[in-house]
Design a protein that fits this description.
Largest interface: A-B, 85 and 85 residues
Strand content of chain A: 5-15%
Number of strands of chain A: 14
Oligomer: homodimer
Radius of gyration of chain A: 22 Å
Order of helices and strands of chain A: EEHEHHEHEHEHEHEEHEHHHEEHHEEH
Structural class of chain A: alpha/beta
Number of helices of chain A: 14
Chain lengths: 379, 379
């Protein structure tokens, strides 16, 4: 069914239980939807502009950003086009081509790409590999020493993926932050899969910077949007304004998200503040799904016990079914869809990830039943 | 009236004739609105991702970008978060800090800020100043010579604002392009106020790059979005992929606009292709408004005859009224609003800009009448 001449109707959230890790926590709230519809034209937040997006009082962007900073335990925040743009902004402000930057082995690809674009030399804290893929905070100290011995100095920045988008491992950010503080290496916490889903406090984990993703984890939509939150001491360097246009921060080229995504983020914020208080429920759901699916032969990779809604499975049992099923490797996608579930990539059976975020108890039970039923009926 | 707890209802396009130059050509079409509502959740265009936003077949982003390239007389295009991000992408790919870049005196502030962020040395082709603010293409040759004598080499890039957002001056881009070609200086045409409104052909004007703004001039919305179109010879340098993630272009950090703005841009495209054919009508409206407002004492700055919908006025007559009017300098805003018109900044009377884009003959007549009536009744 088409919604316009060239665009198909999208009904993933309306008609299915969506378990795509990219999308579960970016599902918009009713409030965000209303705000988006009212502000969907270009430059819609600029009606009362006095020169700077992040200082705008109507819609209340300035006030919202102050609240975000408090919510994340940071001193100041600005809007970006996404978490990747927030990471690049910090890299661009702090480093010169050739400088050393330390990242983790479970990083999102955009962390790597942002480093490449900034021209820095990348040093990686490897994960423990299969099956846990654990990032050991002590690895940061080791790699700092390696950087020191190879380059003669410390890295200009350390980036930690708070929770990665594959295994859903929650890293001990405080331990990494403490090491960075001890070495005096600036610490950027990429909270794309955490802030907006679960409690995050930059102060508690010694973060100098936090990058967040509105469309991934803050129930925002109507365009992509992110947040860059910083500790006060970095204001001059990272929020530096143009020398000529004094209200325009260089690293967001003056103004970033200037349309419906901004009001969506603001409109969803009361809901987001509330939902992080119920993170224990989300973890409970994740644990339950992981353990139930392991009972039918799937293997949940990553650090146990599950502490996040994103999870990765290896599944010989489903792969074997695909070898003789008439739909071949598309059988899992098709069988789940028949049971009202979407979000695992079409064609995958042997390795896949999913997210249980934001589901009700009934939906979680239905999800488990669907896998059980598929294994039973198709085996 | 509030649309949500923290966001006011926005009804500028629904209840008024909006003449804000930022907004007139970013007003979404019905098709775009339908597409936005269907795709308003985070990462909504990523359901069928095979790794790269600009290669996506469902929604038909790849096909759309091919059509955009043909439409603009260029070889290849990618999505960006806006025209400013497109300009910075080119600057970042082509220059190193300290390199010389030539821009024009009527540039958008983001051109300057993008240059500052890239750390380049800015050389400016001055406009002729009040009252025409004309950019003489020959100025580019002169400034290239100046760069040569001051730095010993040619600039790494020349940027021309095709039409500026203050005076609405249409610069002879072909003449500038020819000079750039002769000097072998890469030429970036900032078409934020032209492509999507009026016919633009990169090939005809010898453009190496064109930056476009979806939310400003392509009837897009549901988030900010832009386009970067290039000549084939620049593909390797400007669309360079990550060394590790081969499908992810560095300069857009892999994927840029990944939500409703993308489908809005695609959904509005048939309308945009059609509307540029009727540019003569838009120019006729602009000429009519400029000449009628001059008859009641306003002075239209910029190059004459009017050739674009954006126009700037000096108005001693309205300023004088404001000195004794009970609403002081807010009288013009209030009086226009009473007559169903918004879009001139509240508080301005002596200098202001407006745009007549996309208005019907009746709306244009009403706009002129409103100014006549205000001058007559308030004088």
């Amino acid at each position: 069914m088409k919604v316009t001449e060239n665009i198909e109707l999208r009904d993933r959230e309306e008609d299915y239980i969506n378990i795509n890790p990219l999308q579960t926590a970016g599902r918009t709230t009713l409030e965000a939807r209303k705000a988006i519809v009212s502000y969907l034209d270009g430059y819609s937040v600029c009606d009362w502009c006095k020169g700077a997006l992040c200082e705008m009082e109507k819609p209340p962007i300035k006030k919202f950003l102050e609240e975000v900073s408090a919510f994340l335990g940071m001193d100041a925040s600005i809007l970006t086009n996404g978490a990747r743009e927030a990471k690049f902004a910090v890299l661009h402000a702090l480093t010169s081509p050739g400088d050393a930057v330390v990242i983790d082995g479970n990083k999102h690809y955009t962390t790597y790409v942002a480093c490449e674009r900034a021209g820095v030399k990348i040093f990686e804290v490897a994960s423990s590999g299969n099956p846990e893929y654990k990032i050991n905070p002590e690895g940061y100290a080791k790699v700092f020493e390696q950087v020191k011995s190879e380059t003669g100095g410390l890295p200009k920045l350390a980036i930690l993926t708070h929770v990665d988008g594959s295994y859903g491992n929650v890293v001990d950010a405080k331990a990494v932050g403490k090491i960075c503080r001890d070495y005096k290496v600036p610490f950027l916490l990429n909270a794309a899969y955490t802030s907006g889903r679960m409690p995050v406090s930059g102060k508690e984990v010694y973060a100098d910077f936090i990058s967040s993703s509105g469309h991934k984890s803050w129930a925002a939509g109507g365009g992509n949007i992110g947040l860059l939150s910083i500790a006060d001491s970095w204001k001059e360097k990272v929020f530096k304004p143009s020398a000529k246009y004094k209200v325009k921060p260089l690293e967001i080229l003056g103004c970033s998200a200037r349309g419906s995504a901004t009001v969506a983020l603001i409109a969803s914020f009361p809901h987001v503040k509330e939902r992080v208080k119920h993170w224990d429920k989300e973890v409970e759901h994740a644990k339950y799904v992981a353990s139930e699916l392991e009972k039918i032969g799937l293997v949940n990779l990553g650090v146990k016990p599950r502490a996040h809604d994103v999870m990765f499975f290896e599944s010989e049992v489903l792969f074997k079914i695909s070898e003789t099923h008439k739909d071949k490797n598309f059988f899992l996608y098709n069988e789940l869809k028949k049971r009202g579930i979407v979000g695992i990539k079409a064609g995958l059976t042997q390795n896949f990830k999913l997210s249980t975020f934001g589901k009700t108890d009934e939906q979680i039970k239905h999800l488990v039943w669907a896998f059980q039923d598929i294994v039973e009926k198709c085996k």
